[in-house]
Amino acid sequence: xFKAQIQPPIKEILQEDSSEFLSVPFDIYQIEEDAEPVLxxxxxxxxxLNKPADEIEAEIKKFMxxxxxxxxxxxxxxxxxxxxxxADETIKTLTxxxx
Length: 99
Known about the structure:
single chain; 42% helix
């Protein structure tokens, strides 16, 4: 499972049009039972200056739900591929065997 920890937001200026926005960095940690959290990556989202904190939090929560879901899907795909590798090896081993 992954969790986000929001770092201090920063007011920044977009170079293209000099518009201001709120840059909100957050660290993503992988959380495992009986282990220390491991920093996986840092993301940074941009929001309008007038965006309320609860809406920013909701956006990051929504992102983290998708992040966790994508990881779980990738894990299932790896397990599925490994299962097929075993089956392919069994087929190869059994093909043409005389008993």
